[in-house]
């Protein structure tokens, strides 16, 4: 039996184990004789550490060791690095204060680890952690990013708490365009800080074998090889070939599990020091405090238009909060993942963006689903909306006349990126049709008849995914390459094991990649097994983030699979006594042209491993190939989101009545999985727009440290989503795919806020647009 | 959670005696406030007295005039009880909106009342319906029961055993849930009883309270418009991340009118 499964909604093969409790997450793994770790964390946002008295804790029942940040410093364990060097506009390198694995001299945010207690049981470790006596001397904290540059310096060698002052684009040309414009729209906004809230908290087990000197680290990572590389090359804990990093089933990441954190690093160090396996699983409270947060921008912008409404220039000034330390990729998020996206879908000829990245006494901020692109999209789609309203134009038509047209590709934006392909108007038109925009006025009248407000909001987004051309990334400051590896091992019976350097933590790679390879070979999807998440099994790989897995990792697999097909053709030619050029391969069969002579894929596999009749003098036996794929460009998923809301003016409560998303992700392998990714992304985007926000008080204490106060979106906050697709296949990767993981979270927030402000008749309501804010806005409009 | 001693008495008397003998004991009903507090180490009792072994503390009875609800009756039993739905449907509605299905199948009415969380739902019904709270030593009127934030008239070791709800002519409960916790940001219980109109508000202030200005206005004219012109004192209202005092005061009016519209 053969089949072509590309484009079919094959049920996710991983789901049976996930939904029946048979998954194997890090916390499910228990090693013989393992000890448990618990971290002592700073209760202060900013304080000097004096004496750390561990004597009482050390004597507590079950305690094996109490290891302080000072002990860690004495062992010369390296600082956690940031993997992307940004240069300021004056050419200087960004300021990167040391990021100790555990604080030794000073704490810089609430929740920062200062000591690790290792004990026989989790409870004993926790009990002892409570009696580690740390002598803190409090200092004034810097909390709000907008105040950071004028506040006293957190680090002596980081004046004005400024990590870098970056710029992109032509300032002079943009300012000239604005000065000469018929209309200029200005906008000030805060992109609210978010806490990632993956369902599975972070966890790790470090297991050092003193006899073999092998260190195995099980950890909740989106990119186990990157963890290994950083622990090896930068922190120098263990030689790379002696360190195995395993990221087993991982329950969601959204970016927060890209990074190398203090906890797994401290655990690895402690395991080597003590010669025992140590396990740590975050409590949810720790996740709130110490997972890298997302967003947190303060921005002002001006958009200039001519009399016909054509965009002439966009000038943006953003302050981005880095938190207390630079997390692994923090510096790249508000720069190359943000400023480069400010052209959006529009032919704006002049764009200039400046970004001041600042340090504050808050948890580190890094990539969170979308990472920079949601911030860019929110700014752009809000200011375009405001421009339409200010000039009395239909917001759809203003967008439409500024769209980059299909004939304009490849399109070079003024902010570095070159879009390869797209058809933005096709997505816009399809979305308008699905959202029934033409009858919106009737629905608005019906809402008004019952005393409610109704509004509609649009968002035409673009994102840059498929990170990335390595040489471009390197020129821009990336510390790593951004290609991907893939290996296709055909077994003697013709089943296939696929190994990928990407990592699945909810995305369904075990199904999608199986479909991709199975269809390449014309074999059943069930004959393909996907292996990921273990540096002991795989070639080096870069992991999963930035919607890159299919576009980059899938392309590597496609190339490897094609190599297998070509080798199989040589074997088939030998067996069928003809030239390879005379053999066609299709639907699982090698066939001699214009003949009924053929061999199945399975027969070829068997011949490769039992080479009794085989051209051994010309061809190695076996049938396994690998490929490393470095993309030629980013991919550019794009689309239109339309949100329609109804608001109860008495309470300000918003009901999202309709949400339409039409996305161009290029070629689709599994439509069901793509739709699921879009649903999840929109849910998170609606969460940001309506519900979620991370709040620190003026002393740097986290006010939203539990689900009692941090408001996650729930099913009853969300409508049925109406999801559609358009397709302009990516021009530069063999799969034609662009990536779909982040689009929902990127496109949706401005659509929601545009709809709410349209309904209320106000210029702006900051995110999250809570009922109280909306109610107050309604009072002001009516006053 | 720290270690503690666990006790499971089989009678109210035994429970009360245990409580008085032990150093720092707490009663455990549904555990939906106590156990999370213990897990977070905010509560650290030396002894936990589990009430689950005492028979007769759970159940709904409508033999006489009053609806009698045992203190250990779970929310879901109240929400789905045909008796409650027929005698005081608003009480069933209120119970059906507490927490989520898991909470409703563990949490108890007595636990909720004894805890007197300012954002809990049940206190609004108890005060709004002028219920009588039967304890191990006496009966307390609802008007005397709630004394402050997480404070009640229950004395040390006094165990709430049963709640007697007088039948109301009509009643309604309308709640504006906190979007994160789904506790009541504001919950308003309006009842027309033989003793007159009662309006009890939870969530808005440090403790559930009767909105006497609303009651007076409604006594003359039981309609939504009777409340026009009333402004609740924002000084007594809570302010938190989710709602200011001003917004809460406004929500009290809106929820009260919605409750009235259900039963007027």
Q: What is the compact description of this entry?
A:
The complex is a heterodimer of chains A (783) and B (264). Chain A contains 19 helices and 28 strands. Chain A has 783 residues and is of the alpha+beta class.
The portion of residues forming beta strands of chain A comes to: 15-25%
Rg over alpha carbons of chain A: 27 Å
Number of helices of chain B: 11
Main beta sheet of chain B: strand number and arrangement? 5 strands, antiparallel
Strand order of the largest sheet of chain A: 3-5-1-12-9-10-11
What is the makeup of the main sheet of chain A? Answer: 7 strands, mixed
Give the termini separation of chain B: 49 Å
Q: What is the oligomer described by this structure?
A: heterodimer
The chain-level structural class of chain B is: alpha+beta
Q: Structural class of chain A, please?
A: alpha+beta
N→C terminal distance of chain A: 72 Å
Report on the architecture of this protein.
The complex is a heterodimer of chains A (783) and B (264). With 783 residues, chain A is an alpha+beta fold. Helix content of chain A is 28%, strand content 23%. Chain A is built from 19 helices and 28 strands. In chain A, the strands form seven sheets. Chain A has a seven-stranded mixed beta sheet with strand order 3-5-1-12-9-10-11, sandwiched between helices. In chain A, strands 7-15-14-13-8 form a five-stranded mixed beta sheet, sandwiched between helices. In chain A, a hairpin with a 5-residue loop joins strand 19 and strand 20. In chain A, helix 9 runs parallel beside helix 18 (743-760) and helix 14 (509-521) runs parallel beside helix 15. The longest helix of chain A has 27 residues, at 549-575. The radius of gyration of chain A is 27 Å and the shape is globular. Chain B is α+β, with helices and mostly antiparallel strands. Chain B is built from eleven helices and 14 strands. Chain B has helices at residues 12-21, 34-39, 75-80, 82-87, 89-96, 101-104, 109-115, 122-128, 142-145, 212-220, 245-263, and strands spanning 5-7, 25-28, 47-50, 60-61, 67-70, 132-135, 139-141, 146-148, 151-152, 160-165, 170-177, 184-193, 196-202, 209-210. A five-stranded antiparallel beta sheet of chain B has the order 4-5-10-6-7. In chain B, strand 11 and strand 12 form a beta hairpin. The radius of gyration of chain B is 18 Å and the shape is globular. The model of chain B has no long low-confidence stretch (mean pLDDT 96). Classes of the chains: A alpha+beta (783), B alpha+beta (264). Chain A binds chain B through residues 123, 127, 130, 285, 650-651, 691, 695, 703-704, 707-712, 717, 770-772, 775-776, and chain B through 1-2, 40-41, 176, 179-181, 241-244, 247, 250-251, 254.
């Amino acid at each position: 039996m053969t089949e072509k499964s590309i484009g079919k909604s094959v049920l996710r093969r991983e789901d049976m184990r996930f939904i029946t409790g048979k998954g194997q997450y890090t916390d499910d793994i228990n090693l013989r004789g393992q000890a448990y770790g618990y971290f002592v964390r700073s209760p202060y946002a900013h304080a000097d550490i004096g004496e750390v008295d561990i004597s009482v804790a050390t004597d507590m029942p079950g305690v094996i060791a109490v290891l302080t940040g000072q002990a860690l410093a004495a062992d010369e364990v390296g600082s956690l690095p940031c993997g992307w060097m940004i240069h300021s506009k004056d050419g200087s390198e960004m300021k990167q204060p040391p990021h100790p694995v555990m604080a030794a001299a000073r704490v810089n945010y609430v929740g920062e680890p200062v000591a690790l207690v290792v004990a026989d049981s989790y409870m004993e470790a926790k009990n002892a952690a409570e009696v580690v006596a740390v002598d803190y001397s409090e200092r004034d904290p810097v909390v709000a990013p907008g105040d950071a540059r004028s506040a006293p310096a957190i680090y002596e060698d980081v004046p004005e708490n400024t990590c870098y002052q970056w710029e992109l684009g032509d300032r002079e040309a943009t300012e000239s365009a604005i000065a000469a414009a018929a209309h200029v729209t200005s906008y000030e906004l805060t992109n609210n800080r978010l806490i990632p809230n993956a369902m599975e908290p972070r966890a790790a087990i470090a297991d050092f074998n003193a006899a073999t000197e092998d260190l195995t680290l099980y950890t909740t990572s989106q990119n186990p090889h990157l963890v290994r590389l950083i622990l090896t090359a930068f922190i120098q804990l263990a030689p790379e070939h002696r360190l195995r990093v395993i990221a087993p089933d991982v329950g969601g990441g959204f970016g927060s599990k890209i990074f190398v954190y203090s906890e797994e690093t401290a655990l690895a160090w402690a395991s080597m020091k003590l010669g025992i396996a140590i396990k740590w699983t975050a409590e949810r409270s720790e996740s709130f405090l110490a997972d890298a947060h997302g967003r947190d921008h303060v921005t002002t912008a001006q958009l200039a238009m001519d009399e016909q409404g054509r965009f002439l220039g966009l000038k943006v000034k953003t302050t981005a909060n880095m938190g207390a330390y630079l997390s692994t990729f923090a510096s790249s998020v508000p720069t190359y993942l943000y400023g480069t996206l400010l052209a959006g879908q529009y032919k704006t000829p002049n764009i200039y963006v400046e970004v001041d990245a600042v340090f504050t006494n808050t948890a580190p901020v890094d990539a969170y689903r979308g990472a920079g692109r949601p911030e860019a999209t929110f700014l752009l789609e809000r200011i375009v909306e405001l421009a339409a309203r200010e000039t009395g134009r239909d917001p759809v038509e203003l967008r439409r006349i500024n769209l980059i047209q299909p004939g304009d590709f490849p399109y070079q934006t003024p902010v570095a990126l070159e879009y390869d392909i797209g058809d933005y108007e096709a997505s816009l038109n399809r979305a308008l049709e699905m959202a029934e925009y033409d009858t919106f006025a009737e629905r608005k009248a019906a809402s008004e008849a019952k005393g409610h407000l109704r509004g509609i909001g649009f968002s035409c987004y673009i994102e840059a995914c498929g990170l990335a051309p390595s040489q471009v990334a390197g020129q821009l400051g990336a510390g790593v390459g951004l290609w991907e590896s893939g290996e296709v091992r055909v077994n003697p019976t013709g089943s296939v094991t696929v190994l990928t350097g990407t990592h699945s933590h909810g995305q369904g790679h075990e199904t999608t990649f199986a479909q991709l390879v199975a269809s390449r070979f014309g074999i059943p999807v069930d004959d393909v097994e996907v292996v990921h998440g273990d540096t002991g099994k795989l070639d080096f790989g870069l992991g999963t983030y930035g919607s890159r897995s299919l576009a980059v990792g899938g392309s590597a697999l496609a190339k490897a699979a094609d190599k297998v097909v070509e080798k199989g053709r040589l074997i088939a030619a030998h067996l069928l006594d003809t030239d390879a050029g005379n053999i066609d391969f299709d639907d699982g069969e090698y066939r001699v042209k214009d003949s009924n002579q053929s061999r199945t894929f399975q027969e070829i596999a068997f011949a490769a491993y039992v080479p009794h009749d085989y051209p051994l003098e010309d061809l190695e036996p076996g049938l396994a190939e690998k490929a490393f794929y470095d993309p030629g460009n980013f991919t550019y998923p794009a689309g239109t989101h339309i949100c329609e809301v109804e608001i109860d003016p008495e309470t300000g409560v918003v009901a999202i009545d309709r949400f339409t998303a039409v996305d161009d992700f290029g070629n689709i392998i599994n439509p069901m999985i793509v739709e699921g990714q879009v649903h999840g992304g929109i849910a998170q985007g609606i969460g940001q727009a309506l519900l979620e926000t991370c709040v620190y008080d003026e002393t740097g204490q986290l006010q939203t440290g539990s689900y009692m106060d941090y408001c996650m979106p729930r099913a009853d906050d969300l409508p049925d989503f109406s999801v559609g697709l358009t397709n302009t296949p990516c021009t530069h990767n063999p799969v034609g795919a662009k990536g779909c993981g982040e689009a929902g979270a990127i496109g949706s927030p401005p659509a929601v806020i545009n709809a709410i402000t349209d309904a209320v008749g106000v210029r702006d309501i900051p995110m999250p647009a809570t009922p109280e804010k909306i109610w107050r806005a309604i009072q002001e409009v009516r006053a | 959670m720290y270690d503690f001693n666990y006790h499971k008495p089989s009678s109210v008397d035994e429970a009360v005696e245990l409580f008085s003998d032990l150093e720092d004991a707490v009663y455990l009903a549904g555990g939906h406030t106590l156990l999370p507090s213990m897990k977070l180490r905010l509560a650290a009792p030396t002894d936990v007295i589990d009430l689950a072994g005492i028979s007769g503390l759970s159940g709904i009875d409508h033999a006489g005039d009053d609806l009698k609800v045992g203190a250990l009756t779970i929310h879901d039993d109240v929400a789905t009880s045909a008796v409650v739905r027929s005698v005081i449907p608003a009480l069933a509605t209120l119970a059906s909106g507490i927490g989520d299905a898991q909470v409703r199948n563990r949490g108890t009415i007595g636990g909720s009342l004894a805890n007197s969380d300012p954002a809990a739902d049940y206190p609004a019904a108890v005060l709004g319906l002028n219920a009588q709270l039967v304890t191990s030593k006496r009966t307390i009127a609802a008007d005397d029961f709630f004394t402050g934030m997480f404070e009640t008239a229950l004395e040390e070791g006094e165990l709430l055993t049963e709640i007697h709800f007088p039948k109301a002519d009509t009643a309604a409960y309308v709640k504006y849930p906190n979007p994160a916790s789904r506790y009541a940001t504001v919950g308003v219980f309006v009842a027309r009883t033989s003793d007159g109109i009662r309006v009890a508000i939870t969530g808005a202030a440090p403790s559930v309270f009767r909105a006497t200005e609303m009651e007076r206005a409604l006594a003359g004219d039981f309609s939504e418009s009777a409340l026009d012109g009333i402004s609740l004192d924002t000084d007594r209202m809570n302010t938190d991340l989710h709602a200011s005092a001003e917004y809460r005061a406004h929500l009290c009016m809106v929820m009260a009118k919605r409750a009235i519209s259900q039963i007027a």
